[in-house]
Amino acid sequence: MEKIKVIVFEDNQLIRDALGTIIDATPDFRCAAAYAGCSRLEQNMELLKPDIVLMDIEMPGINGIEATGYITRNYPDVKVLIQTVFDDPERIFRAICAGASGYILKTDSPQRQMEALREVYNGGAPMSPSIAKMVLQFFTRKNVILVAPEQSAEELSLREKEILSLMLDGHNYRHIAEKLFISYETVRTHVKSIYRKLHVASRAEAILKATQQGLR
To answer: I need a surface site. Which of 114, 132, 150, 205 has the fewest CB within 10 A?
Structure first.
């Protein structure tokens, strides 16, 4: 079975080396390369053709948000997971707008980091609980409208409402599965249905629309 290929962009060598070690030690994953910056981003992407890019935000030269925008425009099948020490709402919002599939903190445990990589590979949108809460607060404070209010949502099932509520609280797929005593894959299936019914394409949009329409 071919391993999930990850490229790391991180300017701190200790963190960069640690991430590479953690990824390589995880079954089904391989760290294809780890770079200190994005100066050769196009060449790196063309040469290695990763499945996932684990991206830092603050790097010399091209920053992580700019690099994320380039990747999502030119390599739409590649997932970008932002990992940073910053929990600034403005940065988070810019990263989401650039097309990031998830956003976690460097202070998250190695287990959580690998869960996030697997989740984003499987089509999820992982966020640390503190990040998810901050995104919601940012949207509310700035009155950001990502989803047209006239697009009414289809009726969610009771189970879908349970899962959506846990998503609003910042829980990832694995935690939701544990809390509801269902499988990880069952959670993924329900989330896909939630996205379809809400007419959204990401966790951030689902959170916003649920808040706008009082679906919690």
So the answer is: 150
